[in-house]
């Protein structure tokens, strides 16, 4: 399959700080590709390079068959971008903003009107179309941004934290539209997110990025399998320490932890391992009062590769601010 | 796909975006007109050279007939201003004044576009970078001409005397001169603001340059009354050329060669707009 996006040693330095460090990856046509990482990992910088807003310091990328450095105009015609920040003109209405962006893509007026009506309906902003954007709430602005990014029906759509700060209902509506877009026009979608469930549920392949480097690429399923299979939690009635020894002795078990009467461990295939374990425990007259088998979540995958939980990262804005300061210093 | 987009595509849409902000808020238009009107109504009406010479001039012991004083006064005024009517002389200066001030502001809007994120959106669209810059310039030219027209009407109401043999072509020429000056200055200031994220520094540049540019020109007084060190500056200053053209065309007074004046303004406009377009490709994007 030909690739919609191909990054080749893509690198961005701000002074001494390397925001993106020789990354290589491919995104196939028609795919939903997730870029997952904590703040400051280099997600937004990567999107800026792929969308020709920022010039790479080293390496390049090919987007829709065009080189981002040599053919930026061609790249821009192929893509739609929903940046993280608000970009709509506050002094204009939502409708005027959409029509302006449509004109910049060279979309004929009549067609632009049709699409704008449809998009405003999709993001549930029809009622506010003739209001100035400065009167919009945060959620409304983000929805307008998404409509603006879709007005040119791009071959490749870049979404930088598209659903940030939106309620679950709007998030679902937006994903529904993204799927519809792909079904109708075969749009390739490249998105960054820190909603792990969202990446897990909607992305077909995921790249995990941290400190400007890609740590892993694969389907959510592959990534989870690499982490080491399923997580089994058993609550026992009997000697926990004996039970622990039994479980540790079984082939393929790792990461055993005990809390009270509950034993938690990882095993490659939970469904076949569970009966074996229960049988072994029964032989020693240890009864299991409950057992749960869980596939690993993206949260665990993330922890495995980056050594930290994404949620902890999000709660501390400190690192993000430090990153911003580094960038602004480097630019001076 | 190849030839779908016109090289000028988006230019008018972007210009219209700027204009919409302006005509939707008439208050800003009115505020920006206050300064030139105050100059005209307060300063222009009070700084009445003609009456200074003629009213109540009575030197003891000398009995000079009033008619001779009047004649001397009008000759002095004509020699300096080209006309006996200082108010009309000043009114032409105010046309370039409003054009200059409007054009200097064009740098501000690109700084705001950058700060508010609008620019980063524009940069992801296939609109040519040069058109982002030229839309600001075009907007500034249109605004300047509309505002200059209002100032002109008010000046006429306040007593500005146009050349009795004024032709439509003279008016077109006057507007062309103002438009060329606006194009040059707006390009210059947009270019200066290409990399800037600080509107404070843009304000500072504006405030630093507007008064010197006004006073180092023939807007308020003729170049020949300037000290020797100011004259060369006045002869570089495009305002001097615009005023020279407009006083000839609108007031019918004598001046320098119109051809040379227009050539100078044309070169000024072309150089700076070309500079703006060229640099926009390099500097509009983030580093």
Mean pLDDT of chain B: 85
Poorly predicted residue ranges of chain A? 313-319
In helices, the fraction of residues of chain A equals: 40-55%
Q: What is the SS-derived class of chain B?
A: mainly alpha
**Sheet with the most strands of chain B?**
none
Number of helices of chain B: 13
Largest sheet of chain A: 6 strands, mixed
Strand order of the largest sheet of chain A: 6-7-8-3-9-10
Beta percentage of chain B is under 5%
Residue share in helix of chain B: over 70%
- Low-confidence blocks of residues of chain B: none
Overall 3D shape of chain B: elongated
> What is the CA-atom radius of gyration of chain B, in angstroms?
22 Å
Q: What's the number of helices of chain A? A: 13
Q: How far is the first residue's CA from the last residue's CA of chain B?
A: 29 Å
Largest interface pair: A-B, 31 and 27 residues
Please state the average pLDDT score of chain A.
Answer: 83
- Determine the N-to-C terminus distance of chain A: 43 Å
Principal-axes geometry of chain A comes out as elongated
- Order of H and E elements of chain A: EEEHEEHEHHHEHEHEEHEHEEHEHHH
